[in-house]
Design goal:
This protein is α/β, with parallel strands linked by helices. It has a single domain (3-218), classed as TIM Barrel (Alpha-Beta Barrel). It has helices at 3-17, 34-43, 53-59, 61-65, 84-87, 100-113, 136-143, 169-186, 200-205, 215-218; strands at 24-28, 47-50, 72-75, 93-97, 117-123, 154-161, 191-193, 210-213. The protein has an eight-stranded parallel β-sheet. β4 (93-97), α6 (100-113) and β5 form a beta-alpha-beta unit. The protein is globular.
Length: 222
């Protein structure tokens, strides 16, 4: 089965899992070669996710330069100080804002660039050292001053989380459900970005609005 068939199959599955409001499918193209990305574009993929800012800008250069392109590029990795300027060269969304300093640096940079971008606060609800993001108390504390977290050019779109590294389905569901509860209480107008190739079905059941799927579309990397 090729990229087109896998993409269309997953699209149909997302619609069947939640017919009234299917989540947005972000095809995670990080580390994928340009020929596979072109194949995905020809299959109808619109939303792509890249982990490394510069790599994404280089691979998607022809679409970024085309004003008529409808492709939407999402940055899905942690954002680091000093890299914010590059986000505004082609990305519409960033899903990995995991520190208070990063939030306000992004807001400031957006005003300087005068370009629109949406961002997600990344939570680390599994409290794994290998994961980036706010712990629960930090996240809630920040959301309690959410009126400071958006400006004319930069909008807090929602919350993002990754499931536990061991993939345990029970803990995965607990993690996704916990973020959904936080969203409901502190950011009801926001979206949820959660779920990857191995756990997107659980994420959708728990209310995810964006799922980030790589290998299930592109196949395993060589």
């Amino acid at each position: 089965m090729g990229i087109r068939d896998r993409f269309l199959e997953i699209q149909e599955e997302l619609k069947s899992l939640r017919p009234e409001n299917p989540p947005v499918l972000i095809a995670v193209s990080k580390f994928q070669p340009l020929e596979k990305i072109k194949e995905a574009v020809n299959a109808g993929v619109i939303h792509f996710g890249e982990n490394r800012i510069q790599e994404g800008l280089e691979k998607f250069a022809e679409w970024i330069a085309n004003e008529n392109s409808n492709l939407v590029l999402h940055h899905i990795g942690p954002v680091q100080s000093g890299t914010f300027r590059k986000l505004f060269l082609g990305y519409s969304h960033t899903h990995g804002v995991g520190g208070e300093g990063s939030v306000f640096e992004l807001l400031s940079r957006a005003e300087k660039e005068q370009k629109q971008i949406g961002y997600f606060l990344q939570a680390n609800l599994t409290r794994e050292d290998t994961k980036h993001g706010f712990e629960k108390k930090e996240l809630i504390s920040l959301l309690e001053k959410k009126e400071m977290l958006s400006n004319t050019f930069c909008k807090l779109e929602g919350l993002m989380v990754m499931g536990p590294s061991d993939g345990d389905p029970f803990k995965t569901r607990e993690t996704f459900r916990e973020l959904s509860k936080i969203r409901k209480e502190y950011l009801p107008e926001g979206k949820l970005s959660m779920g990857m190739s191995g756990d997107y079905r659980i994420a959708i059941e728990e209310g995810s609005d964006f799922v980030r799927i790589g290998s299930a579309i592109f196949g395993e990397r060589n």
